[in-house]
Amino acid sequence: MLSSPKGVSFLLALLIASFSALFLYLIAGSTRQTLGVSFVLTFVTAFISVYVTLEFLIFREISRIYVLLDKLRAKDFKLPRKKVFKSANPLQRLNAEISAYATKKQQEIDELKKLEHYRREFLANVSHELKTPIFAAQGFIHTLIDGAVDDKSVRDKFLEKAARSLDGLDALVQDLLTLSQMEAGDIKMQYGKFDLNDLTQEVFDQLEERANSRRARLKFEKNYDKAIMVYADRQRIGQVLTNLIDNAIKYGNDGGKVIVEFESDKEHVAVTVKDDGPGIEPEHLKRIFERFYRIEKSRSRDKGGTGLGLAIVKHIMEAHKSKVSVSSKPGKGTQFRFKLDRAENH
Ligand SMILES: Nc1ncnc2c1ncn2[C@@H]1O[C@H](COP(=O)(O)OP(=O)(O)O)[C@@H](O)[C@H]1O
Ligand SMILES: [Mg+2]
């Protein structure tokens, strides 16, 4: 009753009329008739004035606010109104709805601030990463111009170093492009059926020289004599394997082992790439998939790393509706694992 303007006006008018009748009865000792007339008149006047005030000044304004809130919510929450608050008192409901709305907005603002911070940090990282190889190549070339070019052995060494810096720059720009295209959703996965065993052997062959330079051995966990058919984007999965195996060689021990294992169940094939290197401390473990995150920046860059490899791996696995996980025991080694759909089910 208290939630409608009529109910509130009725109660208030009743109260006021009773008081005035009581007052007249006590003070002036009026007749019953006068009391009755005064009661009715006071009741009617009070009822009308309270009702008008409530209906036109307060409740109408509140319903306008409701309409506005509904419009806002229809845009933002996509929730039907009744589901949210059932309280009968309109002011309480309004209060609850406005706080819910404000909380939601605050969350959005926090999210935007986080993104803004992320964007700024990313820009700073990109500029820094670009500057490093450009600066190095510039230095070598200027030294050559300034006379080092006359000494044949110095010249060759500097040219080689300048070229290596520019190769690093090229790799970085390639990775940045891949990453930005993936984030923009421009790269569609080209699904097909292929043999993982075969693809891994190809990647082993490509990385053989690099492995040899560290006396590392690239091996399968066991001899997979049958084809391991999966349904995925062959080229992208090749990229994933290349980065994981390349990391295992780069960050593993000299003379270490890099092992690839496949385990099939009814629906999936799980691929594990493991090394017996120094491993990754837990505090770094959860961050290595972030863009540009490297445990030892200088060491990684010397090894030709861009710090974007694992971020790309993560994106590729997400695009396959799968994910890549990592586990590591410091001092013992690291393993990365991801699952792909078996080809039979497609
Ligand atoms: N197998 C591994 N063992 C130890 N550390 C690793 C391994 N793989 C990756 N890391 C760490 O994770 C970081 C990020 O890897 P990644 O994104 O591929 O960048 P990059 O190879 O360019 O350094 C590396 O810099 C390295 O510190
Ligand atoms: Mg890498």
How does this model look, in words?
There is one protein chain. The chain is of the alpha+beta class. The longest helix has 56 residues, at 90-145. The model has no long low-confidence stretch (mean pLDDT 90). 63% of the residues lie in helices and 13% in strands. The protein starts with a helix and ends with a strand. The protein is elongated and about 125 Å long. It has three domains: 5-84, no CATH class; 113-183, Helix Hairpins (Orthogonal Bundle); 191-345, Histidine kinase-like ATPase, C-terminal domain (Heat Shock Protein 90, 2-Layer Sandwich). Strands 1, 2, 3, 4, 5, 6 and 7 form a seven-stranded mixed sheet that branches. α5 (152-183) runs parallel beside α10 (309-319) and α6 (196-213) packs parallel to α7. It has helices at 5-27, 32-76, 81-84, 90-145, 152-183, 196-213, 234-251, 282-285, 297-302, 309-319; strands at 191-195, 217-220, 229-233, 257-264, 268-275, 324-329, 333-342. Bound molecules: adenosine-5'-diphosphate and magnesium ion. The site of adenosine-5'-diphosphate has 19 residues, from α7 and α10. Magnesium ion binds next to α7.
